Amino acid sequence: MSGFLGVDWAHPSALGYPVVFGGVLLGSVVPVVPTGAVVGAGAAIAVSGGDLDLVLVVLVATLGALIGDLVTFGAGRGGRGVLRRFFERRQSPEKLAGARERFAQRGWVLVLVGRLVPAGRIPVLLAAGALDYPWRRLVPAAAAACLVWAVAYSLLGVLSGGLFDNPLVATLVATTLILLVSLAVAGVQKLRHRTR
């Protein structure tokens, strides 16, 4: 029997959607959960016969990420006095003015890249909040960034889920693959930062 969004909410597999949503939301606010791995695992289960719908996995991951990003940005806005003083102690007025200008000119790009780069999202969102980036510009940028992010990590899950018929094996492979990609990107960033 189908219910809301065509999902049989009485079926045990339907728990996958709130798990993806909750895991992504929690990890987006407090980075204790590897959110990309949660999305990839959900996608792997969806394509390996685990009774989840891939489109719904992407949508609930996008929604969880967006709410988490808006909470983080809101914390930056709410604590902007404290954050501004923090930034002012560590950066010159010229650098802060440059950051404000970059957000004014291409804030949506910074929000998108911050969402896709490991460990980039929280600093970008807090800085955007502290620098008074407007909500009306942040919300569509964050929504687009969260959708692109959810699709990207779902594709990694689809890749592993398409290789294995067993949802558990597909989930483990997707999680491992996503963690390795994240570590590789972080390693490249660290090397680039050292060479500057």
From TrEMBL:
Look up the coiled coil feature and give its residue ranges: none
Q: Which residues cross the membrane?
A: 20-47, 54-75, 108-131, 138-156, 168-188
What broad class describes the main subcellular location of this protein? membrane
* Compartments where found: Cell membrane
Membrane topology type: Multi-pass membrane protein
**Gene Ontology terms: cellular component:** plasma membrane
Record keywords: Cell membrane, Membrane, Transmembrane, Transmembrane helix
Tell me the domain of life: Bacteria
| Boundaries of every VTT domain copy | 44-158
User: Does the record bear Transmembrane in its keywords?
Assistant: yes
Q: Which InterPro entries has this protein been placed in?
A: DedA-like, VTT_dom
- Family under the similarity heading: Belongs to the DedA family.
Name the record gives this protein: VTT domain-containing protein
User: Which organism is the protein's source?
Assistant: Actinokineospora bangkokensis
